[in-house]
Amino acid sequence: METFEKGVAPPAENFDGSSLRILIVHTRWNYRIVEALVRGAEETMISKYHVQPENITLHSVAGSYELPFTAQRLISASTNTLKFDAVICIGVLIKGSTMHFEYIAEAVSHGIMRVGLDSGVPVVFGVLTCLDDEQALERAGLGDRPGKHNHGIDWGHCAVELACKNRRWKDGII
Ligand code: RBF
Question: What family, per the record (predicted)?
Fold first, then answer.
């Protein structure tokens, strides 16, 4: 079978993340997988873009359904103090035998999009929506499938790129 490098290619421009403030809101539901995704995002932002570890704020919530509300409240609370440049919402939804998965996935994806558009702060959709445990492990770079890839890495690239571009856009620079 033909193989290729999974996930997003790094941006062409070398963004400087050294003064960025990033908020990661993550779930404690499916925490083993979530933890790996959070680490992938953090390590990428620190090692590739020089984001300062002390400028990354972690905040945990129970499950994915709580992500949009919490991101919205923390962005709101930070406007006069910390001012986050980007937010990454990280969760893992795994399909069960009821309709919960569908309802939560739809609400959360729309909610996260809305928080970003309403606040003007980029909010990265770091929620895996998997049909089984193996898919989730593989997409967090865990397990032993050959094609595994940690999508947290992609979300780290994405957050820094949008945060840097958004600063320019605020100054009218395109
Ligand atoms: N939250 C997740 O982040 N991932 C899940 O896979 C997940 N599955 C759930 C399945 C059921 C049956 C229920 C009741 C909740 C689930 N949640 C899950 C939690 C949900 O996102 C939220 O925390 C709770 O519904 C409380 O608002």
Answer: Belongs to the DMRL synthase family.
CA angle (12 as vertex; 126, 145 as ends), nearest 5:
45
Query: How far, in Å, CA of 48 to CA of 139, rounded?
Result: 21
100 CB less than 6 Å from ligand 1?
A: yes
pLDDT at residue 2 greater than cutoff 80: no
129 lines ligand 1 (CB under 6 A): no
149 is catalytic: no
Pocket probe for ligand 1: among 33, 65, 94, 99, the residue whose CB has the most ligand atoms within 8 Å is 65
- Is residue 106's pLDDT more than 80? yes
Residue of the CA atom closest to atom 14 of ligand 1:
100
In the prediction, which pLDDT does 18 show? Answer: 98
11 vs 20: which has the higher pLDDT: 20
- Helices vs. strands in the chain: H and E counts, helices first: 5, 4
CA-to-CA distance for 26 and 91, rounded, in angstroms? 6
126-154 per-position pLDDT tens digit = 999 999 999 999 999 998 888 899 999 99
Structure confidence at residue 29 as a pLDDT band (50, 70, 90): very high
Q: Which CATH superfamily is domain 22-170 in?
A: Lumazine/riboflavin synthase (3.40.50.960)
